[in-house]
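Example with several molecule types.
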Amino acid sequence: MNHLMEAVSVLLDPDAWSGPSGFGARMLEHLWYTGLALLISAALALPVGLLVGHTGRWRALAVISSGMVRALPTLGVITLAALFVGIGLTAPMIAFVVLAIPSILAGAYAGVESVNPATKDAATAQGMSGWQVLLRVEIPLGLPLIIGGLRNATLQVVATATLAAYVGAGGLGRQLFLGLRTQDYPLMLAASLAVILLAIVLDALFELSQRLLRRRMGVV
Amino acid sequence: MEWTLNNLPRITDLTLAHLVLALPAVAAAFMLAVPIAWAANRVRPLREVVVSGTGLLYAVPSLPLFIVLPILLGTGVRDTFNVIVALTLFGLALMVRSAADALDSVDAGIRVASTAVGYSPVKRFFSVELPLAGPALLAGLRVISVSTISLVSVSAVLGVQSLGSLFTDGFERGIVPSIAAGIVLTAVLALMMDLLLVTAGRLLMPWARGGRA
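Resulting structure tokens for the full complex:
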């Protein structure tokens, strides 16, 4: 428990947070990695997922490929990428995107599929085109599940971003690995607690947005 | 391939070490999740609290959890026990919800009928509810088996031996085949466990052989 006290005092120490390699800068880096990875993977996976859900084509392929990626060990993906493209942010970013795509893809097609077929038929009967059905009916109604996919991807990336420091990038993992190498357990612990806190706060924000959305849609 | 053949003894050792970490965690998560889910289903107001509460564990990133747990357990970061407990917690995060849903899916009419023909609550659980929830429980077990086997390797950055050591060694010494072998073997291990679970399910639950979703 002594270690815990020391770790908490590290986290409460303003000096530990300031400077270019302090907790503050590292946490911003961690968030920046997460945001960028989400942006890239959403740009790739959302259109495909929505299309799969809308047309019902290539569904089996999407299901199998996301299942397979989920069995991939994150550390393996990140180190393999690092050996090919070298030290820096590119390798971890490749790994983040590979790992985030399945969740976003699954959320997108499941979201579109979850819309009641009668509602879709009604929209078509009103004279809506396929695109209009997708944009005005399927996406808005499937939004809770689509956001759920982004939420899982975020959790995955925040966790994996800790490993980015192992292959020479930044993020809160820097502090963690510094503590590991110098046998400074309180520092490792402080970094771990900071990552856990960050993950829980992000998850809670998603939970909140999903709840607000459901309430707005009247599907509490 | 040549690298793999030259390092076969070490790879075998690491595969066994990997299983020693993963299998007890999967088994423990399953054995704990079923009674927790059962109890949560019984005490309705508790259900959402328990299910969401354990689900929250899933939000905790794995590497930090490996480091934080020793304060609670009094173990070292590199202890096998520490890693197994952390993996069990991740397994619970997924399994409690799927077990609660599985047990909940048993038709209420069947439950009432079995009580009416004289089953005690305990006997009813083991000979009626558990077999009927079996296929759904198996589906949950398969998910945690795959995810646990892939999660184990993260502990290698702390110095715990597993197939993940092939990633850390391979990265530090620049050996691509080492990392590739690690990824392939992790996937093969996950696939083999999955086949084993499916086969066990067929043998134990011959009535569920029909189409599954």
